[in-house]
Amino acid sequence: MKATSLVQLENESVIVTEWRFAPGAQTGHHVHAHDYVVVPLTSGTLRLEEAGGVRDAVLTMGASYARPAGVAHNVINANEFEFRFVEVELK
Q: 44 with 79: CB under 8 angstroms?
């Protein structure tokens, strides 16, 4: 099952996207073209499938983090509830 995304804003500087993951939903493997910031809207665990293996990341509502362009992974909702976050890509 695929996670759903809704672009809320795009201009010359940023792309702001809300992501929603039903239990077990995933993004599919992708590579980030831009530096980005994630703002969790819920707390829970996301499973990351990366080149080095699989790991679980525990995210806390409102506790933002940043990653550089080039990150490659598949993101999976490991919770039994919907997980949501806002991603802000910096162009």
A: yes
